[in-house]
Write a structure and sequence with these properties.
single chain; alpha+beta; six-stranded mixed β-sheet; 14% helix; globular
Length: 372
Amino acid sequence: MTKKKRNERKKKLKSLILLLFLTIVLLTTSTYAWFTSNRSVTIDPIDVYIAASSGLLISTDAADWKTVISNEDITNPGGYTTHKNMLPWDLTPVSTAGNVTGGYMDFFKGTVEANVNDGNAMSLTAEATPAEAAYVYTLNGTTRTYPTLADGEKAPLFVAFDIFLRNDDTNNAVVYLTNGSGVLSSANKDDKGLQNAARYAFVQEGSGNSSTTAATARTWTGGSSSIIVEPNYDMHTATGANAALNTYNQTTVANTADTAALDYYGVQAEITSPIRLLNTNAGATPAPSSTYFKVPTNLIRTNKAYSDGTSTRKSYTNGTLDTTLHQMFTLVPGITKFRVYMWVEGQDVDCENSASGAYLTFKLGFKLDNEG
């Protein structure tokens, strides 16, 4: 073999080694954000516990009033046969900017893949999830059949259900979020930090006086805005902090209470042309496109102490510090209907592959004063 041919072969080998190295880097990069690659996205089971304090009653059918509701009440809400309650076995990361259409929040399912025009960048596309209003349910004992998405996955991708709160006083009642409200890693399960990417939200659908019939209250779908709660805003795992820096160009620390909140942009429109992940969140310069992304309005952030039930009563509402339990909404005398949502926010830095396959517990509590 001539010296010239040997040199040519060496150059080719170097090129192949470089290509292999870039491929490895790309695969490493793709382990972050939105559960990319082929990692599990299962969160199973989901435990939901909602409690109301004295003077306030709660129901899932506007007829059977209690102080606590559970998963069973959500999946079998008495005579409310037209409900659109969704308590899936699995969750898939979705994103929302909090916009509401026809009483239902707008959610988008994102897909993160390598940008064909830039091999070192991961890019996001997003499609609207099936409209909740179009869901059709087949009840057969405890079996529930949902529509099937085009790619064969089962909908829904997030938790959504209706609750009714009853204020028996003759005056308006101010409702606060109680200490112990939030999202936790389920007991006796590996803590993968996915609770730090969880969210829950409320859409007020309608209200009426105490003589309003259950049948009437169930038909209310007049919500036009949402209140989003981001629990555990101050906590990140080491991989979450790493994803914040490498994926979204934001700096934070791991496993440290009361760390400053990281802003994020929720998806508010379908994305058909891939957008680099770096250009989709708060670390981007310039700011993400206002066509596809928006910082959620009416955003409440609570620290890990809220979820743990050891709250020092410190939360943030649209960036403003609250030193008391947070005021959620005001109830008129009578009945008020809310649609409640629970999901994993794909645009959160802690929504990364090593957090998948987690087990979460959502806990909410309401009370009529801000003491204790």
